[in-house]
Write a structure and sequence with these properties.
302 residues; alpha+beta; Chitinase A, domain 3; 4-stranded antiparallel beta sheet; two-stranded antiparallel ribbon; 50% helix; disordered N terminus
Length: 302
């Protein structure tokens, strides 16, 4: 029955993995010095808090929570696995198939992942690179604060008003553009004509757009083509036309985007190293029979 506890432990971890994080109380490590002995195994070997922390750090988040939630049971499972491992080593199971190959593959996978993490963490970015990247890609950080007038079509904007057709709404928006470009008070035009109640209540203020914002392409193209004070042509959207006026056309300062650029360049440097390694890791002289797609022959019985 004891052997089944490892299986049950794994199943319990799997079930807990499906539990939303918000439903699980966060658990923390015991506040004990690293040299504190937290248990002694049946072979007399002691297990310290520092050793537990190192093992804990290698566990998945769900297994970490399990270890803290059921500490006594986790230590018992760990003790059982130590015992079983010693028995397997004494029987030289680690030198027999398929365990030998599984251990080799697991070592490859684990150390490969460790090296990937190490390369990613150690990737460096020079300050001059950040400044250069900012200058080259400055348009990415453009931002525009705008006011807007909205003219709808196809449905009545409010009681007592006739719904405009698309052609009528476009013509009205075009007249407003001409008036604004001719020197008319844009805020007055907003108050008298706009059907976007939210921005109308703020004298047409429509917010500040950034190039990275998720906005319709037509609005993005119109807004970021404007210089400060300029008024756009009517911009069609599914249910109406917008007329935008640029209140401010600026760029996010380097101080605001430095960390963003740093992370992008760090990822880029890491990817360049991985691409180089991937190109260097070539398989030569492959047997065509292996690539033919036929079923592999079963391993010969011992």
């Amino acid at each position: 029955m004891k052997v089944l506890t490892i299986y049950l432990f794994a199943c319990l971890v799997a079930v807990r993995a499906q539990t939303p994080d918000a439903m699980r109380p966060a658990l923390i490590l015991p506040d004990l010095p690293d040299e504190t002995v937290i248990c002694t195994f049946d072979d007399g070997v002691t297990f310290t808090m520092g050793e537990f922390k190192r093992v804990y750090g290698a566990l998945t988040p769900d297994m970490q929570q399990m270890a803290l939630r059921n500490r006594s049971e986790w230590l018992h499972e760990y003790s059982l696995m130590r015992k079983l491992t010693k028995m397997a080593e004494a029987s030289k199971l680690d030198q027999e198939s398929p365990y030998k190959e599984a251990l080799t593959y697991s070592r490859l996978a684990l150390l490969s992942q460790a090296q990937i993490m190490e390369m990613n963490n150690s990737a460096t970015v020079q300050p001059a690179e950040i400044v250069k990247d900012y200058d080259i890609h400055k348009e990415k950080y453009k931002q525009a604060r705008v006011k807007a007038i909205y003219i709808s079509f196809g449905s009545s904007p409010s009681k007592g008003k006739k719904a405009l057709t698309e052609e009528e709404a476009k013509a009205k928006a075009a007249k407003l553009v001409a008036a604004a470009r001719g020197g008319a008070d844009f805020i007055k035009l907003v108050k008298e004509n706009s059907e976007d109640e939210t921005s109308k209540a703020k004298d047409g203020d429509f917010g500040t757009f950034r190039m990275s914002d998720n906005i319709p392409d037509a609005i993005r193209a119109a807004v970021f083509a404007l210089k400060q004070g300029e008024v756009s042509d009517p911009v069609r959207q599914p249910n109406g036309f917008y007329v935008f006026r640029s209140e401010e056309a600026t760029y996010r300062p380097l101080s605001q985007v430095r960390d963003e650029i740093f992370m992008a360049l760090k990822t880029q440097h890491f990817q360049e190293v991985m691409d180089r390694l991937n190109n260097e890791a070539r398989v030569k002289s492959v047997n065509p029979a292996f690539l033919g797609g036929g079923p592999l022959a079963p391993a010969p019985a011992k």
